[in-house]
Amino acid sequence: MIEKRKITSAQMAIIMYTSITSTGILLLPSAAFQYAKRDIWLALIIGAALGLFTVFAACRLHQYFPKKTLIQYSEQLLGRFAGKLIGFIYIFFVIYLNSFILREYSESIISNFLSSTPLFIVMGSMVFVCSLGVRSGIEVLGRCAQIFMPVIVLLFLLILILLIPELEPLNILPVMENGIIPPIKGSLVAMIWFGEYILISSLLPFVSDPNKGLKNGMTSVLATLSAIVMVSLVILSLFGQLMGDYLFPVIVAARYISIADFVEHVEAIIMAIWVLGAFMKISLFYYVTVLETAQWFKLSDYRPLVFPLGLLLVIFCRWIFPNLQQLIESVGLAFTAFSVSIEIGLPVLLLISAFIFQKLRQNKGNQRNESV
Amino acid sequence: MKIFRRTRRPRSTQKNQSVTIPPKNLKDSPLSKDLKQNLQILKSLYTDCSDVIFHDFVIGEKETAALVYIDGLSNIEEIDEHLLEPLMKENADAGSITAIKDQISISSTKKINKISDVINEISNGNPVILVHNLNTGLAVALPHWEMRSIEDPAAESVVRGPREGFVETIRVNTSLIRRKIKSPQLKMKSMVIGKYTQTQIVITYIEGICNQRLLKEIENRLNKISIDGILESGYIEEMIEDNPYSPFPQVLSTERPDVVSANLLEGRAAILVDGSPFALIMPISFWSLMQSSEDYYQGFIVGTTIRWLRYFFLCVALLAPSLYVAILTYHQEMLPTTLLLTIAQSREQIPFPALVEALLMELTFEALREAGVRLPKQVGAAVSIVGALVIGQAAIQAGLASAPMVMVVAITGIASFLIPRYSMATSIRLLRFPIMFLSGFLGLTGLMLGVITLVIHLCSLRSFGVPYLDPLGPTKKSSLKDVLFRAPMWSQTTRPHFTGDDWNKNRQAPGQKPHLGKGDQ
């Protein structure tokens, strides 16, 4: 086995929760607001359906092919050539998504906190730290997530509680002003985040109690959903229609907090959450990239790939998004289309082919039984 | 010529070694019936050893015999009174070792029949009697040497709790533990490490609570050690750590018998080393380094509060200067305006950036602290006066440091004294500096990255196979009660769980919460 250590399914759920929530609360509200407007919470709920489906698909596929990752069973299912192709698309998708996250992280840090630090330094330092985590293996990432999750959750609840005096709950109304179409459009954006649950197909082989994977995975999706919905509602009732004007509305919201002229400018807390969350998410995607690449090439160890792929990740950021404007624009169109089609297409394709594969195998077994 | 020299050198060194080290066969040879021969061998081994005494005497006016001991390690008065006196009587019997044993009034004796055993026994303070015509000797337990009395351990003092600490003599230390845990299930396995020092090591554990796999692992690691000498348990600690490159201590060293006993009762094992008052406890976690024995002697509410105070000041000790640097360099807006103005005003005269200022002051503080530990006590007062001047009013007046920086350094210093284990406090002191650099370069982001790197390291660290951050990461709910809180005595019904499936789970009977029940009244 390429990874010797194991994690529990609860750890897997926590890894997914911390990584998806922390970027989700920062970026998703404003991105989904462009389409869904006030019905953003509805869009999120629809989007979460994809998360539930993805977890279900990943767990079912893992039942068919225990102890195997997506790369391994796609080759077994679809034959060598098509399997390798699917694997390549999957790896490329993960790197692409990761470079998107890394770029978002770096841009937000630079625009909000370190205005004159070079982009490369911010990205490089983060990727280096992540590579240390990835080299230590999935077990260490699982433990890090367990330690960071309470910190992230507590700090975030603190921010939300401090914001309560500023809220204007009526901003949420009216519900479905323009019918059901805007929330559905918005849900496509939400699906980028929830579809990321496809990554558990690469983690499930290293889970010590895979039979609990489905339950914990679903819980993780629902926890993520509730966290993001809560944040969206808070931001919506704080800003109303203005919400769409901000790239990182949560950071702006944190600036609203002022209690007794002392608790002010707590956006540093947001930044702390953001760095922790970004670390978890980039490490997770980075780990999956490295692991799956090693399996794609049928290597016996993934560690030698960590630093080269980290370099590639940093370069990818430059290649794919030359500047922030293009990055923001791509969220609206190409990026969403690409990500969501893979996040939906890949599990559906694999699930159907696995189903057929299973039927064929059963038929063969039956025929054999009959002939005997 | 050069080639010749190269080939020659190793040979000559080998020869030299063979001269200094007595040949093995001589040491291992059995005692012969000829007393003279035995004494000759021993005397040749102990050439130029003025402290080894060979005393010839005659048993019962018949048989020649010799008493061998090392001056200062054995009790001479008792030798005279209980050993020589009965044996030198007229009718004393020298027919066999058993006969000799029966005549002397000493409780603990041991028959030996090898030269190496003689060496061992006299080195441990047990005089040996060798008799002509007998190829067995008799070692008599009369050890007695000067030792420090049992005192309150200075580095781990408590307000409430036992005031005894280990000393340099291993037998005293084992007795201190045995006095606390009287069950025969308290085991003390003995072994010897060190080619020259022949230091006695005792592995102590409680059978039935301590995991057998852990014990085997400890023994394996100890057996691998091949070293000239063990002068302090620190030697052993460094040789058996899981990750030798980690700045964190992976073994707990303590001077307190009550700490050792408490850990033994939780299923850990301890190593005692002769000549060192520090016992090593393993496996440990990060949290055991943050706990003081007094947490358990006070009420649980106080214990919990103090524990959290300690966690908070751990963060302060690690991060306070970095936070100061990061905020002053990159995030001035985080401070309330009036505070920012005050700080800006006090920094007006300072020629350095915040990072340099912080490094300067922290380094000075560390230097003063180290000097304070090493200097003789008579000069110690001078250091504290100079220190107060260097990090204090004079530094501010000289325009080298700002008043807030001095405060930060002072708070950091105090905070690091809150960490109950010195070894842990040292590593925190050390790690402060890289994080300071990071926050000087990348602000709060750098600080967070430093913390994340630290957490990654801690998550991958193990102490004898037990995850270092256990029970927080990986999370074990049942053990959290002794980390996030100090659970009340009556609710600590289970022991912490380290490795393996077989562990003695129950510590005490459940439901012992004191209350005035209806029936009791």
From TrEMBL, chain A:
Domain of life: Bacteria
Keywords for this protein: Germination, Membrane, Transmembrane, Transmembrane helix, Transport
Cellular localisation: Membrane
Membrane topology value: Multi-pass membrane protein
Pfam families: Spore_permease (PF03845)
Parts of the chain that traverse the membrane: 12-34, 40-61, 81-101, 113-134, 146-164, 184-207, 219-239, 268-290, 302-321, 333-357
Keyword Amino-acid biosynthesis: no
Chief location category: membrane
NCBIfam families given in the database record: 2A0309 (TIGR00912)
Similarity comment text for this entry: Belongs to the amino acid-polyamine-organocation (APC) superfamily. Spore germination protein (SGP) (TC 2.A.3.9) family.
Protein name stated in the entry: Spore germination protein KB
